[in-house]
Amino acid sequence: VARVESVEAASGPHGAVPELSARARRAGAAYAGPGSGPAPAAGRAGALPTIAFTAGLPDAALLPAAALTGAAGAVLAEAANSALQYGGAQGWPGLREWLAGHSRDSAQVALSPEHFSLTNGSAGALANVCETFLDTGDVAGVESLSFPLSVRTIRSITPRIESIPVDAGGLDVDALEARLGELAARGDRMRLLYVIPTFHNPTGSTLTLERRRRLVELCSDYDVLIVEDDAYGELWFREEPPPSLYALAGGVGVVKIGTFSKIVAPGLRVGWCQADPATTAALVATRCDMGTSPLLMHVLDRLGREGFLDGHIARVRGVYADKCDVASRALAVHCGAWCRWEAPEGGFFIWVEAGERVDPAALAAAALDEAVSFVGGHVFAAEQAMLEGPRLSWVPGNSRSFRLAFSSVPSDEIEEGIRRLGHALKRAVGTG
Ligand SMILES: Cc1ncc(COP(=O)(O)O)c(C=O)c1O
Question: How far apart are alpha carbons 333 and 352 in whole angstroms?
């Protein structure tokens, strides 16, 4: 289970932490993230290993270690100087060119290497966008359910965050319009809106085409920069999702952020910003980190040009589609009496809403006992991520909604994990 700790708690045995900056304090609870905490607790006094639907990670069996090893060897043999020297803040042009050719958006808008800058994952991309286009005291908009690390990133720059409601069709654009109108009436404005329109984390929802069009129009009318987080956009199951906000806006007024984390491996920490060349130049000019790893960019570029990446992405899509089917069928069989959900059309997540008879605290206790884990919906509530001080509990103890990440659970454990969830739900309504 991912942990959340206070920044102040980082003092360790060697003394107190120096006085924190206002920005560090504003960032609030530190999200350690998957990979940094202990393994999930074992249930039933350690008798059963827990089946953890917690982390939004790729399936470990799909991490392309052999292909990466081969490409790294070839890059170091053939292009060591370019791969091992500094590479500049915008990143290796070869990989930016591959991205321009690969992007679905290129069917609607012209894309060149000058539309891309390479970053430390999409997390680094969002930080770069916020540093470049947001000031302390500005209003930024986020979806009421969102990826908490992104909300923290925005919050570290400005505490004035407006949370816009979401439903099964994605962000509620009527609510957005009302909020933009209210701000304008006060002589204020929203400067930036962060959205995850496609295979949303945590809800799995996809913003409808009609809402996409309206959102783009509204943000253009009210001069709001759209930050479109497309971390899962390539992972569609049966049909391509609607055109991106970037494409619908003709590439103007939108920074789209992407990542290799979900389609290749999060440990690479390679992501990107896609924006018009002038905006890209501004993003690059703000960078003070000397760029990110040229070696990894060369490796990905090579895998892209060899055709490996396209094949790999097609393959992982199929695996996640199958996993989602297994999870949805198991939910219908084992959990249908106690909760509702909508099967997503891509990505890693199923958002489940338990009925009113389910007691959340009892569900948390029963899930621990049944050796199944998931992340309580409160963790993704933007209001929670905006709270100062300690600190979120990731235990699903106080919300009736929760996120099931099926992506990293081995295929042959999904059904059993959801069967355990069904038992936990049954016990949480007191009929078990
Ligand atoms: C919506 C969303 N954006 C961004 C990220 C961060 O990804 P990256 O590894 O590219 O920094 C995640 C990771 O879970 C995510 O779910």
Answer: 14
